[in-house]
Design a protein that fits this description.
Layout lengths: L2 H10 L9 H9 L4 H9 L3 H7 L10 H30 L7 E4 L4 H6 L4 H17 L5 E4 L3 E5 L2 E5 L4 E5 L2 E7 L11 H24 L10 E7 L6 E7 L1 H13 L3 H6 L21 H9 L16 H7 L9 H6 L6 H9 L9 H21 L5
Parallel strand pairs: 1-2, 6-7
Antiparallel strand pairs: 2-5, 3-4, 5-6, 7-8
The protein binds iron/sulfur cluster.
């Protein structure tokens, strides 16, 4: 275990770590400048519990109904060694194959013995995934739940598997099974976009795995297969999605992330998000202490956080009064003016702009004049 791992363990406390999956990587890269999320995710801290304990429980995520429906649909598509999935793939890719082997990499002896979160068990699962995926050539094969790794902020993180890798004629396709419906050939664009980014995370991780083993990473196709229910039925259908754009974006965002070891070096040595609970399951740590720990790590709230991060309501509250909380376009348009009160004072002319605020102040005053004119016209009085 490295000193960074030990430090991250201390940051997390006694709880078992929450591991990354494609969804968390996609969310992390949507706000690569947020040090708070980078540290909490690297340490595997349960952000949902933290948010609840500081009084801002997360208000997003799938309902229990949606989770159950998703699991049922996935089980149906994977039944009988993925027979239905193989039929869909055959039709979609125009393949003459009649059968493919099916291997579930989600299980390993070490997992049964040591538990799924044990580092030894995860290393064993990852190494088995790597061996089977990199040695697999020739005959068609489906690999369910391969445990992959990705470099995030200078750390190698495991990706909890939620995909099937389909190998045919020496080429891999990532298969994502989602339970949102495709009605009359149309699906919710936001959901498709989210699925495409998640699939791109897996493509990237599989390419890293192949490259490290000395294979051509381009063997993993950027055309991923999305399987969804058709119309309002449970009948599955498959479509190819080109994720080249998402791959470029992910690479760029991952490269923009700061290194976790450098972030840790800036933080107090005793920083901890320990949430040890009493006999009733209630965290014993005072709320203010936990809030203080959160504030030690700089955040970068943006309205998009509301759909992507469990801590969004806490961070929004904290960002109140700051222009950053109004979104990237507002922040950029205001050219670095940090406080909303400063913006209002510049707009009204109460505050003389500093040299670097002159341009923004002129725009703000023009906007304030325009607003006053519109309001007075509505009220029927001359400006
Ligand atoms: S909600 Fe807070 S911790 Fe999460 S990404 Fe946004 S700013 Fe960072």
């Amino acid at each position: 275990m490295t000193s960074v791992d030990q430090r991250l363990d201390r940051v997390r406390g006694e709880a078992a770590p929450c591991r990354h999956n494609a969804r968390t990587i996609a969310a992390l890269t949507s706000n690569p400048g947020c040090r708070r999320r980078a540290i909490l995710d690297s340490a595997g801290v349960d952000k949902q519990r933290i948010a609840t304990h500081v009084g801002f429980p997360a208000q997003f995520g799938q309902s229990q109904f949606a989770i159950t429906r998703g699991n049922t649909f996935e089980a149906q598509v994977k039944a009988d060694g993925c027979a239905e999935l193989l039929r869909l793939l055959r039709e979609l890719l125009g393949l003459p194959i009649s059968e493919a082997s099916y291997t579930d990499l989600g299980r390993a002896d070490e997992t049964d013995r040591l538990g799924p979160q044990s580092p030894t068990a995860q290393a064993a699962r990852h190494s088995r995934s790597r061996d089977l995926l990199t040695e697999s050539t020739g005959s068609s094969a489906l690999f369910d739940h391969p445990l992959l790794q990705l470099s995030v902020g200078g750390q190698r993180v495991y990706l909890e598997p939620d995909l099937i890798a389909f190998q045919v004629a020496g080429r891999f396709h990532v298969v994502e099974i989602k339970s949102f419906g495709v009605v009359d050939g149309q699906a919710d664009a936001t959901k498709v976009s989210g699925a495409a980014i998640q699939a791109a995370v897996y493509v990237l991780a599989m390419r890293e795995m192949l490259a490290e083993a000395g294979h051509d990473p381009e063997t993993v196709s950027s055309d991923v297969v999305l399987v969804c229910p058709r119309d309002f039925s449970n009948e599955p259908m498959a479509a190819l999605i080109d994720v080249r754009k998402q791959l470029l974006m992910l690479r760029r965002q991952l490269a923009r992330m700061e290194r976790v070891d450098e972030l840790l070096a800036m933080l107090p040595a005793d920083l901890s998000f320990e949430l040890a609970a009493d006999a009733d399951g209630v965290p014993t740590r005072p709320q203010q202490v936990l809030e203080g720990a959160l504030r030690e790590v700089e955040a970068r709230y943006a309205p998009e956080c509301l759909a992507a991060c469990e801590l969004a309501r806490f961070c929004r509250h904290e960002a109140r009064g700051h222009t950053a909380g109004l979104g990237k376009s507002v922040r950029e348009a205001l050219g670095g003016i940090d406080r909303v009160t400063t913006v209002l004072a510049l707009a009204s002319g109460e505050l003389t702009p500093a040299e670097d605020q002159t341009e923004a102040a002129a725009l703000l005053q023009a906007a304030a004049r325009l607003r006053a004119e519109v309001l007075s016209e509505r009220q029927g009085t001359p400006a």
